[in-house]
Specification:
Elements (H helix, E strand, L loop, with lengths): L1 H7 L5 E3 L4 H6 L5 E2 L1 H9 L4 H6 L1 E3 L1 E6 L2 E6 H5 L3 E3 L2 H14 L3 E3 L2 E7 L7 E6 L4 E5 L3 E3 L6 H7 L4 E6 L3 E8 L8 E5 L2 E7 L4 E8 L10 H12 L10 E8 L2 E6 L2 E2 L2 E3 L5 E2 L7 H22 L3 H4 L1 H23 L7 H19 L2 H12 L10
Parallel strand pairs: 1-7, 4-14, 11-20
Antiparallel strand pairs: 2-6, 3-6, 4-5, 8-9, 9-10, 12-18, 13-16, 13-17, 14-15, 15-16, 18-21, 19-20
Bound molecules: P-hydroxybenzoic acid.
The site of P-hydroxybenzoic acid has 10 residues, from strand 15.
């Protein structure tokens, strides 16, 4: 998206991607798009397939021990979300960049980044056949994921990496089954959390809270169905069953890097921050980062004015923290966590359920959740 935004303003870029195009396009990922992400894709000419194929949701259900509460996004915010997985967004963006003659170097690994404190930073890369080369540029952006090489240059040089680990994880399955319900269900139960999501009419994505060190072999099909029904069935909904085609454990982590820049090097998306999956914010936050970054880079390249770039981190971080808070808040309200003894566990559980009940049974609470779920306005990408 950053490369696409720069291109629209006449600024050249090269995208270096370690994986092959096929790997990027076929790795199935989650994807709830905030209103801001939907608008951005449409506005920049990459929303056509999204408009044709994505399921648009105007709410979610929160199920508390079988009692369902709907959070109506349309009513509280006038906004919607789209169920359109990340890899589909990538397929559309890659096709667009290639049809615009964009430089996307797949199967190419970045070995190191150098001289980012000078006016002429360099990226040392290696292609799949072992050929090495050096690319020099005016600016380098590390959008290289949670194990970011670019981030290390910032944290090795005094940048902060603030972190939180959660005492639970998600066990995720992919199922060939009809849709359970028209909207996502976030369910909590004394046995733990469950999420009923979807990939298409015939493919469903379900998650169960599990222990961080659980392995897929600890979850037999019988145990999965028993737990999904126990945690997520309600008066009106029965989780649909089918052939399970994939089982995986997802770790829960939060992390924020501050600052998100050093000299002529900038980081965006998971390279800069990680959110747990509960609020489905990862892709959306990355999109908001690049909306803050793109106009600043355009101004720097076209007008030799780096004043906006200098404030990139300051402008991006408030949204990063609000999103961290939302993902943490949703996670902590919906997951059960054993405490040191039975009475303490019961205290924590009842307090947590009272918080959740306060949120889902009042207009103020439902609105607060809805506003955060659909997302705040994006930074403006209007040309400067
Ligand atoms: C998913 O469909 O994988 C998904 C949906 C919503 C979330 C997290 C994951 O909050």
């Amino acid at each position: 998206m950053l490369s696409h935004l720069l291109h629209l303003e006449g600024v050249e870029s090269v995208v270096i991607e370690k994986q092959s195009r096929e790997e990027v396009e076929s790795t199935v990922r989650a994807g709830i798009l905030e209103q801001g992400t939907i608008d951005l894709l449409r506005k920049t000419g990459v929303g056509e397939r999204l408009d044709r194929e994505a399921e648009i949701d105007e709410g979610i259900s929160i199920s508390i021990a079988g009692e369902s509460h709907r959070i109506d996004f349309a009513k509280y915010t006038g906004k919607q979300v789209a169920v359109y997985p990340q890899h589909e967004v990538l397929i559309d963006l890659i096709a667009k960049r290639l049809s615009d003659d964009g430089e996307l170097w797949f199967d190419t690994e970045v070995v190191s980044i150098a001289d980012h404190e000078s006016d002429n930073p360099k990226v040392h890369y290696r292609t799949a056949d072992g050929t090495e080369g050096v690319l020099s540029a005016d600016f380098v952006v590390g959008a290289d994921g949670s194990k970011s090489l670019a981030r290390k240059l910032i944290t090795d040089d005094g940048g902060l990496r603030m972190k939180h680990e959660y005492p639970f994880a998600w066990f995720g399955i992919m199922v060939n089954a009809p849709q359970t319900a028209p909207e996502l269900i976030y369910a909590t139960h004394p046995e733990g959390f469950a999420l009923i999501s979807t990939r298409s009419e015939n493919v469903q994505r379900y998650y169960l809270q599990c222990n961080p060190d659980d392995t897929p072999d600890m979850w037999s099909d019988d145990r999965i169905w028993e737990q999904l029904h126990l945690r997520a069935d309600s008066d009106t909904v029965t989780v649909s069953e089918g052939e399970i085609t994939d089982k995986a454990v997802l770790r829960f982590r939060s992390a924020v890097t501050d600052p998100m820049q050093r000299g002529r090097l900038f980081i965006a998306g998971d390279a800069a921050h990680t959110v747990p999956p509960t609020g489905a914010k990862g892709l959306n936050l990355a999109m908001a980062d690049v909306c803050a970054l793109a106009p600043s880079l355009v101004r720097a390249v076209k007008k030799s004015d780096t004043s906006l770039l200098d404030t990139y981190s300051e402008r991006a971080l408030p949204r990063v923290w609000k999103t961290q808070h939302f993902s943490y808040w949703m996670s902590s309200m919906l997951h059960s966590v054993p405490a040191e003894n039975e009475m303490s566990t019961l205290f924590q559980t009842n307090r947590r359920l009272a918080e959740l009940s306060t949120v889902v049974t009042s207009d103020a609470g439902r609105q607060l959740l809805a506003q955060q779920y659909v997302g705040w306005d994006f930074p403006s990408i209007e040309a400067l």
